[in-house]
Amino acid sequence: MIVYFSTVRRKRPIREGGELVKLDWEAKRVLKALPVFPSDPDIADDPNPRGNSRGGKGILLRGGEVFVGTYHTLLVFDRDLNLKRRIRNHLFVNIHEICAAGESIWVSATTIDCALKVDMSGRTLRTWWPREEPLLRKRFGLSPLAIDKAADNRLLHLHQELGQQESHTHLNAVCRSGQRTLALLNRQGALVQIEPDVRVVLEDRRLRNSHSPTVSPDGRQVVICSSFQKDLLFYDLEGGGFIKRLHLLDFPEVAALKEEFPDQPFNAAIFVRGLEFIAPDRLLVGISPASLLEIDAARGRLLGMFRYGRDVGDAVHGLAALPEADPQDPPAKNESV
Question: Residue 332: what pLDDT?
């Protein structure tokens, strides 16, 4: 199995702020790793020490290509991580997770609380603004964000505290289940269906500050990373009921990693983000320091682990997997984008 994951390296210069990595999971061998950072337009200074504009964001595998987000651009690589092209949009502001929707892509623009659907050239097909949604305004007391939606917003908000606004939702993921499109409102602890109609699917305090909602292959469950609590949370997607919790520190190997790499200011050890089903009951999970876990969700067992980062400030962000390794994979090497 080939695994692609992106990292954010906090408190680093922008151009050293993260990587895109291709990994042979069975061999636990890095096939290629390259720095990933926002460019064209460049970002000279980011005052946020937790990351913000640094590193790689969400990952999508589509056809023979690998899509990875940076702060304001989608980079498109072939499967050997050779850069092919860039996808831009004036509303790409702090991209987080991305997902496929037929021939289009849903993108979460977290700083401006927007989910937008774009085609392969970056043309906007649809936008969804939770702070303007009557149902959510009433339920969560939200007010619209005052921005010029027609302007090039990509670099306008780096030095603004939009995330501190009372109505900020920190919309950090869009995912799909059949014809349903779902968005995670991190600040409110809510998973909201945004099409075909708008409704709150889940609302749970445990979902505050969460990441990476991922629907099970049968479409019956959604699993979400409770990032700071170091949990995987399982919910019934149809009824909205809570099913179970897997606490990652219950695995001795993960607990030992936390002992080796304690928390730092702005950086939490075993920060859980990045999630991928690789079988009906098997998950790949990203944690910090940048590491991957393979978990048997049905039995609550840790099946495998790969340690990549050596600093608690190095965190996994995006994660995607191909079921079988390509025997023509190149040897490990490092390149720059």
Answer: 36
* Average pLDDT along the chain: 93
Phi, then psi, of 294 in degrees rounded to 5: -105, 125
Sheet arrangement for strand 180-185: 171-177, 180-185, 190-195, 199-203
In this prediction, residue 49 carries a pLDDT of 61
What are the pLDDT digits (tens) for 323-337? Answer: 764 444 433 333 333
List the beta strands (DSSP E) in 103-247.
Answer: 104-109, 114-118, 124-128, 171-177, 180-185, 190-195, 199-203, 210-215, 221-226, 231-236, 242-247
- CA atoms of 317 and 307, how far apart (whole Å): 15
Domains identified in the chain and CATH numbers: 2-156+167-322 (2.130.10.10)
Stated pTM of the model: 0.93
**pLDDT-derived band at 120, boundaries 50, 70, 90:** very high
Which candidate, 185, 189, 163, 187, places its Cα nearest to that of 174?
Answer: 185
CB 9 within 8 A of CB 313: yes
What is the C-alpha R_g of the chain? 18
Q: Report residue 271: phi and psi, to 5°.
A: -70, 120
CB 54 within 8 A of CB 14: yes
Q: Which residues pair with 211 in a beta bridge?
A: 225
Please tell me the distance from the alpha carbon of residue 227 to that of residue 270, in angstroms, as a whole number: 8
The span from the first CA to the last CA of the chain, in angstroms, equals: 25
